[in-house]
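Field log, afternoon session.

UNIT: design team B
ACTIVITY: writing a sequence onto a fixed backbone
BACKBONE:
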């Protein structure tokens, strides 16, 4: 009925084997499948569920909105409220809501092209920005996991004409010299440089300060700097990676947490650029369900709860740090090579013998032992821990993860490392 049995490829267990669990319900830090088996959830719907599943404030906000109708196709108060909140938290001067992260990045790039009058965009190998044609070039996890060959040449999906892909230039993440060189040669043709400020989609990759400085230099060439905070936005801080790392992008894209588990994306930033968006400006972008009142209510409740609990980010950081340290210790005890990358509540345990923190680009991540990961994943699942079913994904922790889940996870991890051939 559905190709591959899933509605998004990373949900399939292609790289780890076996059958995806069908989830019947979710509460707090747990998923329950159709057979009644419960799992500690480290996917968090691939990012949005930072407060945990079925959070009372979010449920009540959605229920409250439901009584007034599900979609208007006309302006409504909640979208203004959420725009004001996002503006206040992030410093973006204008915000436009869409219905997914893909729409956000696709629209931001069209806007950058409209604003600059240039054709080319520049992205980084292993960064994923959604599945718009021009962005499916060297595009990270889903493609690293499912395309068969690691490091597949551009374009990384069938159905993307080479002519589209040719407008997307690719540079290496964390390589400031390569970025500077490309900008020196082609900068005058480049409309936008888009990047994941902390990469989640090749596994977690952490930007170096030198790379971040080089990213900001692209502005001097007249390119629009676009931070794709679809994953990191409101996760790494109330102002995402931008707040955490002190970035100054021209435009930012959001998704996931901004919709509190309902379909929402957004893009925003400098008014001078955003005012090119229709109907104010000449760059067309629209959406039947954009600003949907239920989705706006879920987003408002989620961001409101995050703002009301500033210590949450510290708790997430402490939990995830302990998780990372515990994994490294258990792996070491079992003689399994493991290299953990972590920022706040995002973490990837790369199955490889690399010094701590040295996995810093796509090629490094691709050196991981995906077979060992797959075997480890299966034992974790059998023991009730739902890790991301790909070596090249971040896992996400949330407000509902407590010491109980941490201990249970590390118990399962001990067994899973121990079960690997030494
Ligand atoms: N950008 C980043 C950094 C993402 O991680 C994702 C999805 O995982 C997207 C864009 C696309 O968002 P969506 O799946 O909502 O279209």
């Amino acid at each position: 009925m559905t190709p591959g049995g899933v509605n998004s490829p990373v949900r399939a267990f292609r790289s780890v084997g076996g059958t995806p669990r069908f989830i019947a319900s979710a509460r707090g830090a747990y998923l329950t499948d159709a057979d009644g088996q419960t799992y500690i959830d480290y996917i968090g719907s691939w990012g949005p569920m930072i407060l945990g599943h079925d959070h009372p404030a979010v449920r009540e906000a959605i229920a409250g909105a439901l009584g007034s109708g599900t979609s208007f196709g006309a302006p409504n108060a909640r979208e203004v409220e959420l725009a004001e909140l996002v503006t206040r938290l992030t410093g973006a001067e204008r915000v436009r809501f869409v219905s997914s992260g893909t729409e956000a990045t696709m629209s931001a790039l069209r806007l950058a092209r409209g604003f600059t009058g240039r054709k080319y965009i520049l992205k980084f190998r292993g960064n994923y920005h959604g599945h718009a044609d021009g962005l499916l070039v060297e595009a990270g996890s889903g493609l690293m996991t499912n395309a068969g060959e690691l490091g597949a040449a551009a374009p990384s999906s069938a159905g993307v004409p080479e002519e589209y892909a040719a407008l997307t230039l690719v540079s290496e993440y964390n390589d400031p010299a390569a970025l500077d060189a490309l900008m020196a040669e082609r900068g005058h043709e480049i409309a936008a440089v888009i990047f994941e400020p902390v990469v989640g989609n090749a596994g977690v990759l952490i930007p170096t300060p030198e790379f971040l400085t080089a990213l900001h230099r692209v502005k001097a060439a007249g390119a629009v700097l676009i931070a794709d905070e679809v994953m990191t936005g409101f996760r790494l801080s109330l102002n995402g990676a931008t707040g955490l790392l002190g970035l100054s992008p021209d435009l930012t894209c959001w998704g996931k947490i901004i919709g509190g588990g309902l379909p929402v994306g957004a893009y925003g930033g400098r008014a001078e650029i955003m005012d090119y968006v229709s109907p104010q400006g000449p760059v067309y972008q629209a959406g039947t369900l954009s600003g949907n009142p239920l989705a706006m209510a879920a987003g408002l409740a989620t961001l409101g709860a995050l703002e009301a609990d500033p210590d949450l980010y510290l708790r997430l950081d402490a939990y995830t740090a302990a998780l990372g340290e515990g994994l490294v210790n258990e792996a070491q005890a079992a003689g399994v090579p493991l290299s953990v990358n972590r920022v706040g509540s995002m973490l990837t345990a790369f199955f490889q013998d690399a010094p701590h923190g040295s996995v810093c680009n796509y090629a490094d991540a691709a050196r991981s032992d995906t077979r060992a990961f797959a075997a480890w994943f299966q034992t974790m699942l059998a023991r009730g821990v739902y890790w991301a079913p790909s070596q090249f994904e971040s896992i996400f922790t949330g407000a509902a993860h407590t010491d109980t889940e941490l201990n249970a996870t590390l118990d399962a991890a001990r067994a899973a490392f121990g079960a690997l051939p030494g």
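LOG NOTE: The pocket of pyridoxal-5'-phosphate is lined by residues 46, 100-102, 105, 128-130, 196, 200-201, 228, 230-231, 255, 265 (CB under 6 Å).
NEXT ACTIVITY: expression trials, pending approval
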